[in-house]
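Q: What does the predicted 3D structure of Oligopeptidase B look like?
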Amino acid sequence: MSIFKNLPPAPVAPKKPVTDTRHGITRTDDYAWLRADNWQAMFKDPTILDPEIRTHLEAENAYMKAAMADTDGLQKTLFAEMKGRIKEDDSSVPVKDGPFAYGTFYVTGGEQPRFFRTPRDGGERTLLLDGDKEADGKAYFRLGGVDHSTDHSRGLWSYDDKGSEYYTLRVRDLATGEDMADIIENTGGGGAWAPDGKSFFYTVLDDNHRPSKIFHHIIGTPQADDRLVYEEEDPGFFMGVGGSMLDDFIYIDIHDHETSEYWLLPTSDLTGKPQLVSARETGLEYSLTEGGDVFYILTNADGAKDFKIMQTPVDKPSRENWTDVVPHTPGRLIISHMAFARHLVWLERENGLPQIKIRDRRSGEEHSIAFAEEAYSLGLSGAGEYDTDVIRFSYSSMTTPSQLYDYNMVTRERTLLKTQEVPSGHNIDDYVTRRVMAPAWDGAEVPVTLLYRKDTPLDGSAPCLLYGYGAYGISIPASFNTNCLSLADRGFVYAIAHIRGGKDKGFAWYEDGKMEKKANTFKDFIAAADYLNQQKFTSYANIIAEGGSAGGMLMGAIANMAPEKFKGVIAAVPFVDVLNTMLDDTLPLTPPEWPEWGNPIDSREAYERMAAYSPYDNVSEKPYPAILALGGLTDPRVTYWEPAKWVAKLREKTTGNEPILMKTNMDAGHGGASGRFQRLEEIAFEYAFAIKVAGKM
């Protein structure tokens, strides 16, 4: 019996069959028409969306509003709770760089950050950029950050005002606060200053939203006159540009999900041609950080599956000159690294927990910054300067608010700079965080992080929000999240399943959840639900599953595989039309995604493998749980038509009584609303769905 009562008739998408034959296999797609033919242009101007498609999306939104109308008060309550846990006039601890220290702050009621600087050792705060002012009057606005020039005279900042992730770059005179005439369109959002502060480098996105070219812009000249520095002709690779901490090099970073290539442009000759470090070799990953006369290289070369750190002379960076510095240790995944004048620092993860390692570059002595909680999260931000003994890191757990520390690498002293304030109050002792292991189908142990109130009954009656992602090697941290306290305070168990496809247990954990082993991701999530049910943390009748993007694919897969084990499913910007998307090489992310999922255009094996699990292709007649799908009209990563097609097919096929709902944000893309409180409204909506489905309103 559904808890959704008196619903109006649900929208019915008309069927317009389109057939496609690949590898001798013919498929029919009844809802392919929801993909706008002019999607490239529509991302830049949403008003040109086909009227029939717009009408259907708006009908879906109206149906969703009717189904969720009785949660309006709950949504407002949840929003107020979440907002009450955020310090509205919060300010970051400024990062020192030369004569200044740079930071951000918010004002009460403000949605966007404001960037400032002070004299290095404190003093009057100078406003550099007011995000709220720049966003005024825009339905969507996301800042790409502010990067100051080496001489501190100018700032390079970017914004996206459609949600399509086409960023516009502007140059600001930091003395006057005024923008200069330079306007650089269709960029990837970042840039790298030349040391003299008179020019910068940036990436341009092509019509298919891929970063394909890097240009050098001299301030005061038109964008049309910018010099092309590098062009990447392979659509399967992402590309970015950045600068070294010592300002000696401009880095050009080219990569897909398994292969890397770096080019270097010495800043001593900005008109020169970039120099290749090591040519791309399928499966070889590496990244650089400068350490004076050497580069430190984080790489999986020589079979170092969990990565090692090597070094090479700055003037001889090619592969044959790389030598080991931090050897490979199986099971210890090195995540990132940075170098300073006297120390080498890296963040690693072992047994599912992170730690920071520090090596004295002169003596070779190493030590760790480690912590005692059962599950926690670390963030390593390093420092803004090369010649320093002090780095910065953050620590939190599911119960412990974020703490920001300065750490002296010589004296090993920690200085607490800031503890995250929860204005409405937070008593750590009211909550429990645990790390449990769920046995998978093949004997693997899946880590699951839990958060719940101490007074929550663990007899199977508690509702549970079970979150998962499981792709691209991304690990979901066990960090402090004030929002999920609203669920815990209502008797929920909040759970994160650290499933295969992420690197939570090392690189092998990632490999075991991709390509031909992708099904392990889905089975691990179901195993987590099984374990929570068996151990009476919750029960199948009380589990609401949640995932977004590639985690949305997970949601579609588990809904097809084990719908009876979930009371509800929340799928945010869900990558559910996997096969059709991977067959469409005009889409922004398709060619770079082939190393993650396979190329069904060239490979029948990859085609059949995707066809076997692609959520949209495997919807069938069965009783599905209540489902909420969320999309963004201008999303270039998971296009709006994926959830739209999926929902249309689910509604056609389900034999159950629970509603299939879809909410399309007509003013945003992949990340949803851009303002900090606007985003809370979306989370409050999702949580209200979970609470309603769980019968806890």
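A (community wiki): The structure tokens above were generated from the sequence. The domain at 55-83+425-693 is CATH 3.40.50.1820 (Rossmann fold). The mean pLDDT is 94.
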